[in-house]
Amino acid sequence: MTKAFDVAVIGAGPGGYVAAIRAAQLGLNTVCIDEFKSEDGKASLGGTCLNVGCIPSKALLESSENYERALHKFGEHGIRVKDVSLDVAAMLARKDKIVQQFTSGIGLLFKKNKVTSMHGHGRLTGGGESYQIEVSNGGTSETVSAKHVVIATGSVPRQIPGLAVDNVRVCDNTGALSLKEVPGRLGVIGAGVIGLEMGSVWKRLGSEVTILEALPVFLGAADEGVSKEAWRIFTKSVGLDIKLGCKIGAVKAGKKSVSVQYEHEGTATVAEFDRLVVAVGRVPNTRGLGLETVGVKADARGFVEVDERNRTVAPNIYAIGDVVRGPMLAHKSSEEGVAVAETIAGQHGHVNLEHIPWVIYTAPEIAWVGRTEQQLKADGVAYRSGQFPFIVSGRARALGETAGFVKMLADERTDRILGVHILGPFASELISEAVVAMEFGATAEDIARIVHAHPSLSEALHEAALGVDKRFLSL
Ligand code: FAD
Ligand code: AMP
């Protein structure tokens, strides 16, 4: 007999597993279907984020930063370490353990919240009173039915036509997170978030890193002040060789190296790398999902079309996360998951896409929320700006992490905060205060009047707020 559910969630990434848990908490009989398998062939919950994205990349970023500290930074603290050496296998094992703990944790959360978990590929096969979903796993298949469906099938790496990824010599994010040894020469195509994070990891571990970017501008989505300073730091201090405006030609993978033909500033070059990482963005994943069977539409770029409350055109079918419009970020997916579960349960779920924080976990980190200075200029919005450098922060000095700044942009007339842009230590943590402030409609004056602990990095945000009114206390 077909198992019948109130809600079927397809995909158990940060969008899907959160949607399933929230739906079950609200009393809905919920199944979550996921097909992801880790390298050992075992089913693994948590999607891209937990398996081959956010979590493993942050584990390696931390390990590589520790290695670099031991090599180059401990000395100034008077800590002498001899014979620092690298055990890549141990580093990867630590990362794998963290991933395993988190992915198995999702299974426990499903049990605790009474979510039924099914492993296999989900395909919508029909509608009516309720929807039918075929779940196939190897040679076997089972069909379940559900009144409501949440599509949370995420994204997959964008491919360059004709360039085969084998995750040995030519890698996407999965391979880049599991290189067994430090490549002497690492090539990266794409200077976006993933390219910069992966490039930083392997650079700190000893690779010579060249990043080839198609666009003529660096980090175009970030505030121009931030991207300009980040460019200076990444190319000069960090030592990443980033080439903008590249046209990639033929890529040939041999047994020992990969050759990449590219054109840069009018000159044709062939570069030889030991490994190549392709990080040219991600595309929505709707492969074999049967969208057409139930009348769900995807746009020209493959994103499932939804309204502001994540409803597709098919009644009771929703879509969330990387597979729909908006930033491809884990926390955005999760919040949409909560909102959709609450909408299904008759509540008013809603996500404000205007205030999604963005973070790039380079060193220094980059984080922002709201609008950039160039966007405000283009839209003709009158604004005031306060910018405070970390070099003047006592806490940043004590940490030895003084690069970067906090910039706050506020409406000239109302003083309401329109954007906050941070380049610096723990920007990923600091940005939360700005998100809360903006969600509550705060003004720069509100932040200026709130007490911030001393010495803390958050004082830089406080000072930036004071700076909007040209009344810095430490500058
Ligand atoms: P996914 O996490 O992609 O999950 C979708 C799941 O659905 C997968 O398990 C997939 O196998 C499954 N699935 C797909 N189709 C079917 C089907 N038909 N049947 C059954 N199952 C199916 N974001 C951040 O916010 N912070 C970060 O630091 C960050 N770092 C990243 C680093 C890397 C290297 C990468 C690649 C991504 C990173 N991201 C980060 C992005 C983040 O991983 C994604 O935004 C997030 O995972 C999207 O969540 P999702 O639930 O929409 O989809
Ligand atoms: P992100 O979307 O943050 O993962 O960034 C992907 C980056 O890859 C962007 O900066 C793109 O401009 C870049 N990119 C996309 N296609 C190519 C290409 N064919 N060659 C080089 N860079 C590319």
What's the topology here?
Blueprint: E1 3-10, H1 16-25, E2 30-34, H2 47-52, H3 54-73, H4 88-113, E3 116-119, E4 121-126, E5 131-137, E6 140-151, E7 155-157, E8 170-171, H5 173-176, E9 185-189, H6 193-204, E10 208-212, H7 224-238, E11 241-243, E12 247-253, E13 258-264, E14 267-273, E15 275-278, E16 282-284, H8 291-294, E17 317-319, H9 330-344, E18 358-360, E19 365-370, H10 373-378, E20 383-389, H11 394-399, E21 405-411, E22 417-424, H12 427-439, H13 444-448, H14 458-468
Parallel strand pairs: 1-2, 1-6, 2-3, 6-17, 8-15, 9-10, 9-15, 10-11
Antiparallel strand pairs: 4-5, 5-6, 7-16, 12-13, 13-14, 18-19, 19-22, 20-21, 21-22
Flavin-adenine dinucleotide binds at residues 10-16, 33-36, 47-49, 53-54, 57, 121-122, 152-155, 173, 194, 285, 288-289, 321-322, 328-331, 333, 361.
